[in-house]
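User: As part of a screening pipeline, I want to sanity-check one entry by hand. Below is the sequence and the SMILES for magnesium ion. Please return the complex as structure tokens so I can compare it with the automated output.
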Amino acid sequence: MNNEAMNQTSEKKMTAAERAAMIKNNKILLDVDGLKVTFFTHAGQVKAVDGISYQIHEHEVMGIVGESGSGKSVEAYSIMGLLQKPGRIVGGKVTFDGEDLLAYSDSEKREFRGNKASMIFQNPMTCLNPVYTIGDQLMEALRCHNKEISKAEARKKAIEMLELVGINNADKRIDQYPHEFSGGMRQRAMIAMALICSPKLLIADEPTTALDVTIQAQILELMKDLQRQTGMAIIFITHNLGVVAEICDFVTVMYAGHVMEQGTVDDIFYNPAHPYTRGLLRSMPNLDDEKGKRLIPIEGTPVDLLDPPKGCAFGPRCEHCMKVCLTKQPPMVTVGDDHKSACWLHIKEMKELSSGEVTK
Amino acid sequence: MDMLGYTLKRMAISVLTLLLVAAITFFLMNAIPGSPFMTEKSTPQQIALANAKYGLDKPLIVQFGNYLKNLAKGDMGVSLKMQEGTSVSKILFGQGKFVLSMKIGLLALLVAVIIGIPVGVLQAYYRGRWIDNILRVITTMGIAMPGFVVATLCLFEFGVTLGWLPVQSNSLETFGAYVMPVLTLALNPMCRIAKLTRTSMLDSISQDYIRTANAKGLKTRVVLFKHALRNSLIPVITYLGPLTAGIITGALVVEQIYHIPGLGNYFVSSILNRDYPVIMGTTLLLAALIVIMNLVVDIAYKIVDPRINITKKGD
Ligand SMILES: Nc1ncnc2c1ncn2[C@@H]1O[C@H](COP(=O)(O)OP(=O)(O)OP(=O)(O)O)[C@@H](O)[C@H]1O
Ligand SMILES: [Mg+2]
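Assistant: Here is the complex for your manual check:
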């Protein structure tokens, strides 16, 4: 389906389910298959990402949620080729638009970054270089991928981009330094910079976490608008489930470097299958909740990745933990149309179901 | 405060600094017993006569007042001994001594900056690897070794044993004559700059904006030299003030060893000869250079980092 059609249909205010259903028929843009990333530290090997798989279709907005330390950023850096030593990709495949990203040479990686896919980060206060003007940094992003474009054209485009992300007086603002911008404006400038080469994929690593609540909502709204306008796919990394509901079509729930559950937004919110996802939802405040209802935190502490449990990573904290959970990693089980969950409970249920059928 | 007010204030402070330097030099040099005219053959009458001729018989404070009065008119007095009767300004500027010293000093400064900074960047980029380790040993040695040791070693190795470069540089007629004095003078500041750059680059390249620059797809060279280096330059620039002073004092030694008839060399002789006006003139000239360099440093801060407001107090 093309972008136009998508736009027209979105005019009619699709429901989340309708959008998800359309998107899953789109071409696959990014295919992450069994990605493994390990940090080789003095203390030992930290398996920050331990075999995760997902697919992003064109125009799709996928949220990756999980507690701090679950490997969300590391996984995103690996795709962008920004992984720092001592981290190394030790397994899996990443295919973007039919090309094997992990086989790219250094210069091909540079060509990919910022051009075909770009990334924005958590803290806009520190992510812009303080000693260059906003315009300089925007134009540089454009000109390093488009050598022919003249300075004047690049400047025009940069002003356009700043206007697009809602910065007033863009033609004056462009010559200002980051310290003359507020936090929200800096994140807008970061978004403008990320989108200036019209990438097909935007990876947003907690882009609203460092901003105050009203600004958060504005930036989220802006990203949603821009996504609908440009049709780019977005990987939206966050630990805020509220943000996920706002903007995402699909959700991947991560824990300790593993994918716990994957599904559409509706699946995850209204029909969560994995105990970890349910735990996350219970620990999140909700406006619809009756007054005085307590938030229930997930007991225990996140996994020590230097010495991960043998079985299910969430096992030791799980209220439904069984014997098998502590010894063997659960397989990914399809529990609905686009809904998958990695939990032994599903296997148990299936067994009970089938044995029940046999006795009947 | 605006830029003009700030500049005026800085200039007033500079003049005050120079006055202080003049006073300290003047009274210290006169506190040493003896006079320029005291030689084995001279009689007390001759000395008294010469003292009277140049006004050295008056009380010190009056002498100093006179010196300042003349200085304000641009008159730095005449040499009492080394080139008796020749005006100090002519000695300093008219005989090529200052130009000669400036050439060596500026070249040394350039070499120190142009080699020191990239070496520091390289070290930071390859931190902990063999190239960084080797350079770290070399830079530490360069800082630890005094200029005269380096100069003597160079003279012996390249001048005498290998015979590649002239042993006496004299008036620096050939390119070869420059090499040893400039390198000797530049070695220490070069190594210091490399170390400073390495440390502050290590800090810069771990900053978030470097990740942003990489995420844009910029070349490593651009990320290092455009994005990281500019943010690392503040400590290096701060060092430029003391560095100028270091090069000036270093030049005294280097000019002696390589027999370069520059200002440094002449300065040392003027002290040994008690040629008061020459001592005063040279000291003030060198002090003025350092003061100017510090002004340049302040302006350079502002150019390198737009957040720095040099006209604001307490920043
Ligand atoms: N340079 C490194 N060296 C060693 N371990 C690292 C390094 N960087 C990340 N890790 C490990 O990788 C794991 C995943 O980190 P990551 O930053 O991806 O978490 P995250 O899910 O993005 O968390 P957050 O929500 O806090 O951003 C962490 O447990 C961390 O210990
Ligand atoms: Mg993170």
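Points to compare against the pipeline: DSSP finds twelve helices and no strands in chain B. The pocket of adenosine-5'-triphosphate (ligand 1) is lined by residues A 39, 41, 46, 48, 66, 68-74, 84, 86-87, 239, 305 (CB under 6 Å).
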